[in-house]
UniProtKB/TrEMBL annotation:
Name of the featured protein: Aspartic protease
Species annotation: Lentinula aciculospora
Region ranges (Disordered): 41-87
Record key words, sorted: Aspartyl protease, Hydrolase, Protease
Active-site residues, as the UniProt record annotates them: D112, D294
GO biological process: proteolysis
Biased composition (Basic residues): 56-69
Amino acid sequence: MPHHVVVKSLSFTSALGRTKPVSHFKHIVDHDRSRAQKFLAGLHPHGPSPYVEARKSRRGHHHHHRHHPTGGSGTVPPSGGSASDSIDVTDSAVTYLMDVTIGGQDFNLLIDTGSSNTWCGADTQFEPNSSVESTREAVNVSYGSGSFSGTEFTGPVVLGGSSGLTISNQSFGVASTSQGFSDTDGILGIGPVDLTQGTVFGTSEVPTVTDNLFNNGTISTESIGISYNPTTGQDIANGELTFGGVDQSKITGDVTFVDITSTSPASNYWGIDQTITYGSSGSAILNSTAGIVDTGTTLLLIATDAFQAYQQATQATLDQTTGLLKLSSSEFANLQSLFFQIGDTTFEFTANAQIWPRSMNSVLGGDDDSIYLIVSDLGSDSGSGLDFINGFGWLQRFYSVFDTTNSRVGIATTPNTNAETN
């Protein structure tokens, strides 16, 4: 089998680096856009392909789908996740980190739904012990703005630290070299398993941590519920991942589930179809089209033509220091909600949700008294097959469910959907 080097996504806390000068935040905008371009290219070993049906067929055989009667779409009451399956995670200002114990050693890993390899050793060197075993196979992943190379190991991995969810025999990479990571030990990849194809020499694909939790019987449904909450500080444990279900205490209504989009390249990831409008008049921002929900992207990215329509509607100006749109106080007073039509449900993204937390403007390298928008330019016009990325900022206002068993994504409102936090 030829040895492939796979180009995928990157979680961008590493690009900022919590110890770097705050003026470097503009690099986050550039890196988010670079990440988007990699998604758009659909670059994995087999290129963009309509593999979703094959994936569904394969998972249907192994996982015994429990589809909703509507075929996986629609609003359904949430399923329960036990407290033991829920893990607290930390907001690091632009993404979330999880404590993960690998081979008895503790690491802080970026949570990334846009990639699927789990690996460590970027910041803290991995020290193998008798509980782990090297496969002696090379692993190489390029993330566009970063990369790592090393060796694949197998051994015990505990999500959430030493007392969390245990996987007795997880395959994971150990970096011998890495670039583009700062104050981060690696990535917890929870995207579709197909994204691991060709990353490890001699291996067709590497089961994700979610795959193994399901296959080991630890969880009855291969899904992850994610609760991210808006905050006015960083390094705060204000998020939660629930493996195998939904934490009902985090949501305020039913979960709207939609099937993974059939449109490539969004179909290679956690891709959905949605429509975006602005204000009570319903001004069109982005007509029904495909994109992805991604924990590893900081901003809410929309296609260039949609971004231009949004900028015109809001009267915002582009700030050269941060790379973000900027509003005056009077313009913010007139800012209206964005409305996301996902399946049969309309989700309101309020004016407050659209701005960066003003108490954290220093993280941007921006002015303390300025108001910055988190909606940014994807870098290509709509019609590409991936016209938006609902990133970190968007996810802090909604509960999200990534359901491998039924090949679908779920969204629900939370107590923070209409919060005035920012």
